Amino acid sequence: MTSPDAPPTSRRELRAQAEERSRADSAEIPTTAGHSAAPVAAAAPVAAAAPVAAAPVAAASGDIPLVTPRRPVALSWIDVDAVGVRRAPDDLSAAASAYVPVLPELVPRRRRRSPAGFIVTVVVLLALVGGYTAATQLWTLDNVTPVVDAAEAPTVTAPASAVSWPADGEGAVGIDGVETVAASSTDADAMASITKLIAVLMVQDEKPIAVGEDGPVRDIVYADRADYWSFLGRGESALDVPVGGTLTQYQLMQGALIASAGNYVDMLIQDLWPTDEAFASAARGWLDANGLQGITVVEPTGIDEGNSADAASLIALGKLAMADPVVAEIVATRTAQIDGVGEIDNTNPLLSDDTVVGIKTGGLFGHYNLLAARDVAVDDTTVRVYAVVVGQPTETLRADETAELLDRVAEEAAVRQTVAAGTVVGEVTTAWGASGELVTASDLSVLLWNGASATAEPQLELGDARDDGDTVGTVALAGPLDDATTDVTLTGDLGEPDAWWRFTHPLQLLGIG
């Protein structure tokens, strides 16, 4: 192009054009202090990077023009009019493809791992999970065994005795093995010849003989015969003696307890307690030692009304006497033969009943007493019951009232107290939530009387039992007269923990925590 407006074709031309414009601009600089600007010689071309030196500034007065240097302009050689400017489009209508906004990612993308590393990680994780699962599924349950807790032991108690008492005097009943006694009153009354039981038992403590033994021998002299007549003269019961013969301790005990002979009691204790005072003192100590504080003794035969006792204490005395085999043998004897004396009959009218086994009568001036014992069969258990009446107006009435009391107490003694089948005696729980009750497999019953009680004693052993109906122990019920035992069974299935419980409870399986 030849037009002056044609763009330069080389960098040199561009620089030349820039220098011309620079000189033109310098020529137009105004003068200072009234001076017109002097023409400025064209500057020689300089390198682009060299700075333009400032011309010296004239003094405050003079005719030299003041020239202000022009600051170098970057890229001044470019002709902005000759360079085209391309504007950005105002909208996206001319875009070659659809607009897709690109937003910054909220979470930076992870660097992608290689497939091999990913596979190794997965394999390791699967191996760990598989090993853990296998361990929890196969681990033993030693650390999570079911827990057995015993329940409050069931107790059975017999109701109080409700026998009817005699219209006259006092009465009491009891059962061997049961400590409690039922009595109509706590008042003391004269014992009469029942006192002889105490004398015989005291001798047995001092000079005991066993069943089949005769014991020491006493020579019988005329003075003994004289004592016999003296007893009869005073209206006391007495038994003849074989003067010139002998009587053994066993025979003297027979005469005292079977025939209720006062003179035989005297001969039995004379060498131990020669006076009534000595005997009474010894008797007090013996009674206290045997828990018979309700009895008072002043002499050995029972003729003195000072020998007294409440009815309940006489039941206790009867139990103590029947516990001595020799005494029990003698009081159960209906008739006996004593050498030199003959046959003697027992004063106890109730011995005609084969179930009655003793013990002793007493009578004092229209005041009749009877202490008796009877053996009663209840199923496979023999129960010994006792009854006593004191102060009956006639001998017949004392026998009838005593027999009636024996019947009533025997009926009460035959009533069993029962722990029913299915009674809960324990509970079993497991760590995995299963539980079950431990119950008696059958009824437990024992003989109890007059407020006596018995408590079941379970022996629980779960072992490997896990199913409903499995035996997990026994329970025993022991009364004073008999006892009973039955199995304890499990109700409900305990099973074993499922796979999920095992998987989620590793610490319990391991016994940790």
From TrEMBL:
Annotated keywords: Carboxypeptidase, Hydrolase, Membrane, Protease, Transmembrane, Transmembrane helix
Protein name: D-alanyl-D-alanine carboxypeptidase
Organism: Candidatus Microbacterium phytovorans
Pfam families: Peptidase_S11
Amino acid composition bias (Basic and acidic residues), ranges on this chain: 10-26
InterPro entries in the cross-refs: Beta-lactam/transpept-like, Peptidase_S11_N
A GO term for molecular function: serine-type D-Ala-D-Ala carboxypeptidase activity
One of the GO biological process terms: proteolysis
Residues passing through the membrane, by range: 116-135
Domain of life, per lineage: Bacteria
Domain Peptidase S11 D-alanyl-D-alanine carboxypeptidase A N-terminal: 188-393
The keyword Protease is assigned to this record: yes
Region (Disordered): 1-34
SUPFAM superfamilies linked: beta-lactamase/transpeptidase-like
